Amino acid sequence: MPIKSRIRTVPDYPKKGIMFRDITTLIKDPVGFRLVIDNLTQHYLSNGVDFDVIVGIEARGFILGGALAYTLGKGFVPVRKPGKLPADVVQLEYELEYGTDKIEMHTDSLVEGQRVLLVDDLLATGGTALAAAGLVEKLGGVVAGMAFIVNLPDIGGEKKIREKGYDIYSLTEFEGD
Ligand SMILES: O=P(O)(O)OC[C@H]1O[C@H](OP(=O)(O)OP(=O)(O)O)[C@H](O)[C@@H]1O
Ligand SMILES: Nc1ncnc2[nH]cnc12
């Protein structure tokens, strides 16, 4: 498990009862970071999911999304926390595993019909990914797929996202541990 074994678990962060899956220990290791980007690159070169642009979710989705956009020869569009993007934005509020949050995209960041691969480090409730998909669709984009390093299936995000018909790919799971 060269990817999973490099991910650190921090109990009770940011709140009591949360087992925080910390990918910083994976990506600080050059072998780990390369494994992640090579695996995602190979998957999207060969799986038939066709897309034009990568949309990465702040903050850890930027690290993966940026590298993957480079290896796949795509552009990169950020989804950011409120107040960070300088031009006109669209915003959505959503529920997290441990609270609520808001995200924004520039209104001119996509063109009508553009196909998007959403990228983030981790899928828990699916609230963030579904909010990002909502923003992409508000802007006329089409969500072709969603990519994560970590899936936490016990929390239910994967099921919710699959029920809505989106394609998901993740590199590892933490289940009942
Ligand atoms: O599936 P969900 O329940 O929505 O949870 C997943 C989100 O939670 C984490 O981000 P966090 O809110 O910790 O923000 P950060 O990346 O800016 O640290 C993670 O990076 C995802 O974006
Ligand atoms: N358990 C968890 N670990 C890391 N990031 C998260 N985002 C939501 N839940 C998380």
3D architecture notes:
With about 180 residues, the chain is α/β, with parallel strands linked by helices. It has a single domain, classed as Rossmann fold (3-Layer(aba) Sandwich). Helix content is about 30%, strand content about 35%. The protein has five helices and nine strands; from the N terminus they run E-E-H-H-E-H-E-E-E-E-H-E-H-E. The chain has helices at about 25, 30-45, 60-70, 125-140, 155-165, and strands spanning about 10, 20, 55, 75-80, 90-95, 100-105, 115-125, 140-150, 170-175. A five-stranded parallel β-sheet has the order 4-3-7-8-9, sandwiched between helices. It has a two-stranded antiparallel sheet with strand order 1-2. Strand 7 (about 115-125), helix 4 and strand 8 form a beta-alpha-beta unit. It is globular, with a radius of gyration of 15 Å. The chain starts with 7 loop residues before the first strand and ends with a strand. The relative contact order is 0.16. The model has no long low-confidence stretch (mean pLDDT about 95). It binds 1-O-pyrophosphono-5-O-phosphono-alpha-D-ribofuranose and adenine (ADE). Catalyzes a salvage reaction resulting in the formation of AMP, that is energically less costly than de novo synthesis. Pfam families: Pribosyltran (PF00156). One of its GO terms (molecular function) is adenine phosphoribosyltransferase activity. Homodimer. This is Adenine phosphoribosyltransferase.
